[in-house]
Amino acid sequence: MLEVLVLALSVMEEEAAVFGFHMNWSETKIVQFCNPATCSAVQVADGPVEVVDSFVYLGSTIDSTGGNRGEIQRRIGLARSCMNLLGKNWKSSIRLNTKLRLYQTYVVPVLLYGCETWSTTKYLCDRIDASDTWAIRKILRIPYTRHVTNIEVRHISGCQPLSDTIIDRRLRLFGHIIRSSPNEDHHRSVASAIQKPPLDWKRPKERPGHT
Fold first, then answer.
1. Which end of the chain is less packed: N or C, by CB atoms within 10 Å?
2. Are the C-beta atoms of 44 and 10 separated by less than 8 Å?
C-alpha cells in the first residue's frame, strides 16, 4: 500500500505542476494506520517524505492507531500549561466567579478542542475529568490533603464534569449532520455507519471493551 501511495503522490505532483503548484515535501507526512512504519522516509518525486507514527494537523494529532488517546493526553498537557501560565490569577484576590469564567474561557477550550470527533472510553473520560477537577481545586485552593471529595468540589464551583460537556457537543454535531442535506458527504457517511448490520453479523465471543 505504501508503494501505491508514493505513486499517487508522484501523480499529484505532476498534475499540480501543470497549474504552477509545487508540493512542499518537507511539510508532508505519511502515517501507516494499524501497521508499524517499516521505514523512516520514502522518496517521492524530487524530495523525501517522512514516515511517522503521528503528527499534528489543524491542531489535532493524527495517530497511526486511529484512536484519540494520544491527542487527549496532549490536550491535557496543554491545558495544564495554560493553568500554570495563569497561576497569578488563581492566587489573586479577584472574585471566584471571575476565576471560574477565566478558566472556562481560556483553559477549557484548549482541553476540549476537537472533542466533538473524539472516540472516548471510560478511562479517557476519567482522565479528562481528573484534569478538570485538578484545575478547579487549584482555583478554589483546595488541596487533596483537606480530604474534600470531588463531588463537593463540583458543588462549590458549579461546574459540570467535562465528560458531560463532551457528550453534549458530540450530540449537537450529530444533530447538525443528521439535519443536513442527504446529498452531503458527511450526512451520507454517518447514515451508512448507522445502518442495520448484515444478517450474518454476530457479536464476537470475547468480552467487549469498556466504552
1. N
2. yes
CB 89 within 8 A of CB 99: yes
* Residues 82/106, Cβ–Cβ less than 8 Å: yes
Question: Chain-wide mean pLDDT for the chain?
Answer: 85
- Kind plus residue range of the DSSP H or E element containing 13: helix 2-18
Q: Are 77 and 97 in contact (CB under 8 A)?
A: no
Q: Looking at mean pLDDT, say which of 51-55, 106-110, 187-191 comes out highest.
A: 106-110
Q: Indicate yes or no: pTM above 0.70.
A: yes
Phi and psi (nearest 5°) for 62? -100, 115
130: nearest Cα among 97, 82, 162: 162
Model confidence over 72-104: pLDDT tens digits? 999 999 999 999 999 999 999 999 999 999 999
Q: With contact defined as beta carbons under 8 Å apart, do 42 and 31 qualify? A: no
Cα gap 126→143, rounded to integer Å = 19
Cβ contact 32:64 at 8 Å: yes
- Say if CB 104 and CB 139 are below 8 A apart: no
Q: Which residue has the cell 481560556?
A: 106
In angstroms, the CA 11 to CA 32 distance is 20
